[in-house]
Amino acid sequence: MSLDTLCKELRIGGVHSYIQENYPERPDIEEIFISALEAELEKRKVNRQMRALRQAGFPTMKRFEDLVGENLPEDGKHAVPGLRNLGFISERRNVILIGNAGTGKTHMAISTGVLACEAGYRVLFRTAAGLINEMIEARHENRLTLYLRQFKKIDLLILDELGYVSFDLAAAELLFQLLATRYETMSTIITSNLSFSEWVKVFHDPALTGAILDRITQNAIILNMNGKSYRREKKA
């Protein structure tokens, strides 16, 4: 990378001007500065990645490299390359992983989120129950609008374990409000143990359930993750 490019990247244009004015015949000086600035650029990149990973709120760090591919359901095996390249985020598509417990849904979701953080995307991980509790608390404290506004800055929201805990209708409406703000503008990954036909058990109201499904499934990547327990196979 040239000195000029590095200075622009680091927003220190004065350094480039100083070297050109004071050391026009000293290419060795320029090389020293290039090495130092490349190190600084890499350090800033790593710091941004670490900050993004902390702010994402992952319960644990997962990597695709830790997945044993042959233990995944077929849809999971085929989806890994596409998830790893993160193209669905730039395309503003959702990813929905549906299947029984232990088949690798959360592992795949977190692994995708970790890669997204490292690629410079803003990511947030929440369980469905945890997110609902945060929204209820924000509403009680009269800061729900402010709380929801932050999600407009989140490139990838990971909503884990939808279906493990049932909500009341008021909570379901809050979740609908959140998903509606992200509709066709940002990506969401959802993991669930329930088929779409069973989501009414969570949201109670058929019309509201239908409205949520209409929004999150449009142009979404939907993965059937039913199969043998990945965790049990891994331990065997």
From TrEMBL:
InterPro entries: DNAC/IstB-like (IPR028350), IstB (IPR047661), IstB_ATP-bd (IPR002611), P-loop_NTPase (IPR027417). Keywords: ATP-binding, Nucleotide-binding. GO terms for molecular function: ATP binding. SUPFAM superfamilies: P-loop containing nucleoside triphosphate hydrolases. It comes from the Archaea. Pfam families: IstB_IS21. Residues 35-235 form the IstB-like ATP-binding domain. This is ATP-binding protein.
